[in-house]
Write a structure and sequence with these properties.
about 250 residues; globular
Length: about 250
């Protein structure tokens, strides 16, 4: 089996009604993990559903999906990520041609069709403080951290990346086995950064493949509010990342 898709739904049955019809024909097996009751209501025949007895973290759910599937590649796709025709085969063809490509990410677009900056640099201390505190009112991240977001680069050909948003990532199973999967200790944020960072340290390449196009209704909750449970989860995630990788404190 070539590609196994894992979709984690935390009350996103409505989003699945749009994303699964676009995804299922492009993969060999599709597994939806319902993290809350009713999260996979109305899923079509041919899609396997696992109902969690209790909610798990996103990363823990991805690991459940990895263990429950058998494809050479594991595709993690958000419920709100709608793949254009050929997106998965484009990622697979690229990864097949690049044996050290552990992670291949698509080009993400907002629902209005505009480009979404999903290819990013590993976080620095100063940049994170500006992005996640009221300082961003004085130094707007999308204006002053153009390098972090790659705002001045719109590559039309595949390019390597530090990390990419985890909304639609094709991952080589041999890499996942080597790394031990995703780190389930992250509550909800930074697990995709951690995965890509560990992959980089293990010598696996992460590639952004813009010919694979996916529409992503990215909520970006922590960009809208300073104090919410999401901002606290993000702060906890960044603290865990630094505890695991203290050398990143040198990246000011």
């Amino acid at each position: 089996m070539k590609v196994s898709a894992v979709v984690v739904s935390h009350g996103h049955a409505r989003e699945l009604a749009e994303s699964l019809p676009a995804l299922v024909p492009q993969v060999d097996e599709t597994l939806v993990i319902a993290n809350l009751p009713g999260s996979a209501d109305g899923v079509a025949d041919g899609v396997r559903v696992l109902e969690n007895p209790r909610p798990l973290t996103f990363a823990a759910n991805v690991n459940v999906g990895i263990a429950a599937t058998s494809g050479e590649y594991v595709l993690v796709s958000n419920p709100d990520a709608v793949a254009e025709p050929g997106a998965v085969s484009t990622l697979v063809a690229f990864a097949d041609a690049h044996p050290r490509c552990g992670i291949a990410g698509s080009q993400l677009r907002w629902p209005d069709g505009t480009w979404q900056p999903s290819r990013r640099r590993f976080p620095t201390v100063g940049g994170t403080i500006i992005r996640r505190t009221p300082l961003r009112r004085l130094r707007a991240p999308y204006e002053t951290q153009r390098e972090h977001y790659g705002l001045d680069e719109r590559p039309m050909e595949p390019v390597q990346a530090d990390w990419m948003l985890g909304a639609f990532l094709l991952m080589r199973r041999t890499m996942l086995d080597e790394l031990g999967g995703w780190d389930a200790g992250y509550r909800h944020y930074c697990e995709d950064i951690d995965l890509c960072y560990r992959a980089a340290r293990a010598g696996w390449e992460r590639w952004y493949v813009p010919a694979a196009v996916v529409t992503h209704a990215y909520a970006a909750v922590i960009d809208e509010r300073f104090l919410s449970r999401h901002t606290l989860w993000h702060a906890r995630g960044m603290a865990r990342f630094v505890r695991k990788h203290p050398e990143r404190l040198l990246a000011l």
